[in-house]
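Run DUF2809 domain-containing protein through structure prediction, thanks.
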Amino acid sequence: MIPLGIGTRSTGVILPDLIRNYGGDTFFATCIFFGVRFLATQKQLSKVGAIAYLICLCIETLQLYQAPWIQKVRHTYPFGLLLGYGFVWSDWICYAVGVVVALTITYPLEYLLFQNTRNKNL
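Sure, done. The structure for DUF2809 domain-containing protein is below.
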């Protein structure tokens, strides 16, 4: 997921404008979802989705804070990817789409993976 998100921002990649402009933020939210799911395996997927979306919104809102020290941190490679550079309202929609994509992938996978363990316990 991370290489896909970074790839949408690369200048050498030919992609439609929609994906170039919004793909990175969508993949970011998807990665946050899977990270939260990794840490919270016992939580309902809807709660994991809500937590991931709230984390994304907090990080986006943090971009309104423009103190010199955090600007320096943002201009280092890993923190620039994590913290972003400027607040954009459209990112909130990208985050929602990213979480929905992650839920769409996760629901059937977990159902298939854990269906066998449920049947064996009966």
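Residues 2-121 form one domain.
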